[in-house]
């Protein structure tokens, strides 16, 4: 029987399972995992011989031999339900490499999912007693390690010959070396973390030592573990006695003296090259005792040399040797860096620089990213003395490197981890494990030392509960609030987000409902809709580290007070610890909450014709249409070559449709809406709670929303729309893909931005979808998220009128947002630029490339770590394309065009808009084939109250940025 026929046979066996489980749910997979854990064969069915001639034989009928060598391999086949799971959910359990085609395993189209699942599976096996192989790990012959190693070598020989693969996936390839068998090495660092976790999970007294091993490992851990073992061995069950002995053995092996002769011998079979000579010279130097700082610096250089020179090595197998040496050198660097204890500020800065360089050498950050901070750090490090301001900037640059490094790990593995977390919660620890196994851990610990020194000298303090590393918090938006703290593990927990509570995220979702405070590991980008809303509404917003995220879990459900100053320092305390001043402050804040009234005195509901974008100007905003259309129409006149054609459906057409009789009611759609608010007001006067009133309104608005979606469109409007569409967009409805953008009269008010609250439909081409899309946009102000955000701040939320801007799709290569001020500092000494690849970048909360652009240069705040981007095909809809991070989103040419456009905007907008607005602008734009397209320009709205709060000013330290510190100053 041919091998492919055999697998087809098993797929047919699983057909009934697939039919019964057309959509394999997470609950189904959870149940399967429990079954596999108890199965003596785990995920496998039976063992077979797979012969080179394509035949498959039973275990007792081996493949023929030639010259004493078998012409085939032996391994297990998969259970039918495991095969079905792979077929229906692309989830691969118990992967046998020698049974896997290399092009399926290394598949860029699925973002290398099978490779990442293989790595995640190995991690789960290491921390959960074999996981799905709990009993199956003893199934003899299921996996032959010799065949797995042979496959691994063939795999690397195949992919490492491609220079582009190394450039685009350097980090992933180095990480895969730790998991895919191909030599005799083992991943001791992960084994140590896994063994210590297992012990701590089953024996609580070991937890402190486990935290030490995971957070700040060094050679002293050997003595600590041995002492703990001697003290507790009488209390340990036999299984943990074995695990403790395994841990001691792993620690001794990890910290054994380095054999540089062995490292040199690995290069014996490698062809001569400059890289080989460089490594051999260094290994020879290390044979004699060296200052630990010298060795760490030299290894960091070697790591970068390997990365930059690897493509100059011709042989894929030689490249594999160099990459293996790179992983070994990283382990040595991390070990030795823990022994490097700087005594003076200058030495501490040198160590931070060295470890930052090593992140580039190990692929945690891209080489072009390193270049952006390299000259910034070297430009400061040679100064003596250094000012507080200079030290703070140096700390910022280094902290960014840590953040970028962690973001690389998340961007690489998040998609697979999120998939697995739905049915195996312990999978979430994988990303943390990878970060802790990298040089980023040592760098983060070293930066903490500098942060503490700097904060002491500058008088900057964060006071956040009893968090161990207070330097890991940074305020983004000033403000204060009180509410229940929620540490969010999954987005499902946000379905009923409470507007009065404070939320802690790994990353805030782009469609976040109203909340009182935000703490996030990843801020997304500075100008996403969530960030702009937070800034506008004075919602305190803080970035934190992964470690702080974990520590805050113990306070989940507690009521806390949170305050963030404009200097970026953060205060958080339990409600019971609030001072009288803080209690009164919160009460006053509740009483003095500013409400905004949507102006309707100028609105013109008599305009019931579809308008050309060329017909509207900024003066139409809030009169016949919303600010998006009005401003874009104005921009069409100011920048005709940078703005597309378009049409506008004004307020009057929406209102005329709402005046139709609503089915199953006694009145119109509009009456149903206004009567809902009248009833809500009656409920309020009768003493109903806020929650009761909101639930009533949301239920009624859900009914209205569904009715609008079924509303018949007036035939006169349809004819007018089709005619204007053809005239302005050059073809019939159904032949041009378009964006349908909601554009209400409640957006871009002086006190309220309303950014991103209502619906935009992307790249719709089908005629029926366009016509139904009009109704979807009309209904979008009545969604729960849109209503609850504006309900808090509008006195007349019923008077929200949507117009619709219809513009042709532009399949941009990159898109984003510009704020014509420095959002980080609040100053006007630069502009903030946030861009992602593809359409819809930055504004949707993507991990955008963010820069502060000055007149003479620019500063990279965050590189893009968005793993994919949207493209807009001509047949409508969106396609997802995956990114690599080897090049920046914005080139020098793009930045020059952006700078010129900002200059034109600042010069021309006041002239053409006939108002005296002098503040910063919020600009949405994109590039297609290097041509700049403008999509929106509006005033940048931010809340001034938080910036000038007396209380926030009182807890914000006065910092003397010019205070001089000798770099020879001794560290405590």
From TrEMBL:
Q: What does this protein do?
A: Catalyzes the phosphorylation of pyruvate to phosphoenolpyruvate.
Question: Keyword annotations for this protein?
Answer: ATP-binding, Kinase, Magnesium, Metal-binding, Nucleotide-binding, Signal, Transferase
Could you say which cofactors this protein requires? Mg(2+)
Q: What is this protein called?
A: Phosphoenolpyruvate synthase
Does the keyword field hold Transmembrane? no
| Sections of the chain in a coiled coil | none
Signal peptide as annotated in the record: 1-20
Q: Name the Enzyme Commission number(s) assigned to this protein.
A: 2.7.9.2
Tell me its family. Belongs to the PEP-utilizing enzyme family.
Tell me where in this chain the Pyruvate phosphate dikinase AMP/ATP-binding domain is found.
689-944
Q: Which PANTHER family match?
A: PHOSPHOENOLPYRUVATE SYNTHASE
């Amino acid at each position: 029987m041919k091998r492919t026929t055999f697998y087809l046979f098993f797929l047919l066996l699983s057909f009934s399972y697939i039919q019964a489980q057309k959509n394999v749910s997470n609950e189904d997979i959870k149940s399967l995992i429990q079954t596999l854990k108890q199965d003596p064969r785990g995920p496998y069915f039976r063992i077979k011989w797979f012969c080179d001639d394509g035949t498959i034989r039973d275990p007792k009928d081996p493949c023929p031999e030639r010259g004493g060598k078998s012409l085939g391999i032996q391994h297990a086949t998969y259970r039918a339900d495991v095969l079905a799971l792979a077929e229906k959910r692309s989830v691969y359990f118990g992967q046998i490499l020698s049974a896997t085609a290399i092009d399926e395993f290394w598949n860029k189209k699925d973002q290398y999912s099978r490779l990442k699942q293989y790595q995640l599976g190995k991690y789960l096996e290491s921390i959960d007693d074999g996981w799905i192989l709990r009993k199956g790990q003893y199934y003899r012959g299921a996996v032959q390690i010799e065949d797995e190693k042979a496959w691994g070598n063939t795999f690397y020989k195949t992919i490492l010959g491609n220079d582009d693969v190394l450039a685009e996936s350097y980090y992933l390839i180095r990480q895969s070396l730790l998991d895919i068998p191909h030599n005799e090495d083992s991943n001791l660092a992960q084994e140590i973390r896994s063994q210590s976790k297992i012990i701590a999970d089953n024996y609580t007294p070991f937890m402190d030592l486990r935290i030490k091993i995971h957070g700040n490992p060094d050679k002293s851990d050997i003595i600590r573990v041995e002492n703990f073992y001697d003290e507790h061995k009488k209390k340990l069950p036999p299984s943990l006695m074995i695990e403790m002995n395994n841990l001691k053995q792993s620690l001794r092996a990890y910290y054994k003296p380095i054999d540089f002769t062995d490292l040199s011998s690995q290069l014996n079979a490698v062809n001569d090259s400059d890289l080989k000579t460089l490594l051999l010279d260094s290994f020879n130097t290390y044979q004699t005792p060296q200052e630990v700082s010298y060795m760490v610096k030299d290894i960091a250089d070697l790591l970068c040399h390997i990365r930059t020179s690897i493509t100059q090595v011709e042989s894929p197998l030689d490249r594999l040797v160099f990459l293996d040496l790179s992983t070994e050198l990283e382990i040595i660097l991390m070990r030795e860096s823990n022994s490097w204890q700087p005594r003076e500020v200058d030495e501490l800065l040198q160590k931070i620089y060295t470890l930052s360089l090593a992140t580039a050498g190990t692929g945690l950050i891209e080489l072009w990213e390193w270049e952006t901070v390299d000259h910034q750090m070297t430009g400061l490090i040679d100064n003596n003395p250094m000012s507080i301001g200079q030290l703070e900037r140096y700390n910022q640059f280094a902290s960014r490197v840590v953040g970028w490094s962690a973001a690389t790990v998340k961007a690489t593995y998040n998609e697979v981890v999120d998939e697995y977390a739905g049915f195996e919660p312990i999978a979430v620890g994988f990303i943390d494990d990878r970060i802790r196994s990298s040089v980023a851990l040592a760098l983060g610990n070293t930066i903490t030392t500098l942060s503490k020194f700097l904060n002491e000298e500058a008088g900057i303090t964060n006071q956040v509960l009893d968090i161990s590393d207070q330097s890991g918090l940074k305020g983004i938006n000033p403000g204060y609030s009180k509410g229940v703290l929620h540490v969010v593990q999954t987005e499902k927990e946000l379905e009923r987000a409470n507007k009065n509570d404070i939320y802690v995220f790994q990353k805030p979702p782009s469609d976040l409902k109203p909340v009182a405070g935000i703490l996030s590991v990843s801020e997304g980008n500075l100008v996403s809709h969530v960030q702009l809303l937070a800034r506008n509404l004075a919602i305190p917003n803080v970035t934190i580290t992964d470690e702080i995220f974990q520590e805050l879990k113990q306070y989940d459900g507690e009521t806390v007070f949170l305050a963030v100053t404009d200097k970026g320092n953060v205060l958080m305390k339990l409600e019971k610890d609030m001072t009288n001043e803080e209690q009164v402050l919160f009460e006053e804040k509740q009483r003095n909450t500013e409400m905004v009234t949507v102006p309707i005195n100028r609105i013109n509901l008599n305009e019931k014709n579809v308008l050309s974008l060329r017909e509207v100007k900024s003066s139409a905003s809030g009169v016949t249409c919303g600010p998006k259309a009005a401003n874009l129409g104005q921009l069409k006149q100011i920048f005709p070559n940078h703005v597309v054609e378009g049409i506008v459906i004004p307020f009057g057409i929406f209102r005329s449709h709402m005046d139709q009789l609503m089915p199953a009611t006694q009145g119109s759609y509009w009456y149903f809406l206004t009567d809902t608010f009248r009833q809500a007001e009656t409920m309020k006067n009768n003493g109903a709670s806020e929650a009761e009133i909101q639930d009533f309104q949301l239920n009624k608005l859900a009914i209205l929303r569904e009715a609008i979606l079924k509303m018949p469109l007036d035939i006169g409007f349809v004819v007018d729309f089709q005619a204007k569409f053809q005239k302005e967009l050059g073809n019939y409805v159904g032949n041009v893909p378009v964006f349908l953008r909601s554009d209400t009269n409640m957006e871009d008010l002086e006190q309220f931005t309303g950014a991103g609250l209502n619906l935009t439909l992307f790249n719709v081409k089908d005629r029926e979808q366009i016509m139904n899309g009009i109704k979807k946009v009309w209904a979008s102000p009545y969604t729960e998220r849109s209503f609850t955000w504006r309900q808090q701040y509008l006195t007349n939320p019923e008077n929200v009128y949507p117009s619709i801007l219809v513009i042709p799709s532009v399949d941009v290569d990159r898109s984003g947002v510009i704020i014509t001020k420095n959002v980080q500092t609040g100053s006007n000494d630069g502009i903030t630029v946030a861009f992602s690849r593809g359409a819809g970048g930055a504004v949707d909360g993507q991990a955008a490339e963010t820069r502060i652009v000055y007149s003479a240069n620019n500063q990279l705040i965050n590189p893009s770590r968005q793993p994919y981007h949207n493209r807009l095909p001509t047949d409508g809809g969106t396609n997802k394309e995956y990114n690599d991070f080897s090049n920046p989103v914005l080139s020098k040419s793009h930045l020059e065009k952006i700078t010129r456009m900002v200059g034109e905007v600042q010069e021309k907008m006041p002239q053409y808009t006939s108002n005296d607005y002098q503040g910063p602008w919020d600009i949405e734009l994109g590039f297609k084939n290097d041509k700049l397209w403008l999509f929106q320009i509006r005033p940048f709205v931010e809340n001034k109250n938080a910036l000038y709060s007396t209380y926030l000013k009182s807890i914000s330290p006065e910092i003397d940025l010019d205070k001089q510190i000798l770099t020879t100053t001794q560290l405590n």
